[in-house]
Amino acid sequence: MSAEQRITFDSSGLDATLNYLKDRTQGNFHALVASKGNAFAFKHYQ
User: Fold this and answer.
1) What is the pTM (predicted TM-score) of this model?
2) What are the start-end ranges of the H helices in the chain?
3) Which of 7, 19, 25, 46 is deepest in the core (most CB within 10 A)?
4) Distance of alpha carbon 1 from alpha carbon 17, whole angstroms
């Protein structure tokens, strides 16, 4: 019997985080907290 396991990561919040850290504008902040990939920010600000 062969078992295959895959681990997947939700990296959708990574780009928003990097954009916000490079340029801390209000628009980038909203993109950061709207991203479900960034669960902490999403839960805190929604």
Assistant:
1) 0.51
2) 12-22, 26-34, 39-45
3) 19
4) 42
Q: Which of 44, 22, 42 has its CA nearest to residue 32?
A: 42
Instruction: Read off the pLDDT of residues 19-46 as tens digits, 9 standing for 90 and up.
Output: 888 999 988 888 877 777 776 666 666 5
User: Cβ distance 20 to 29 under 8 Å?
Assistant: yes
| Contact between residue 13 and residue 36 where contact means Cβ atoms under 8 Å apart | yes
Tokens of 17: 């985080």
User: DSSP 3-state assignment of 39?
Assistant: helix
Q: State the sign of the Cα–Cα–Cα–Cα dihedral 9, 15, 21, 22.
A: positive
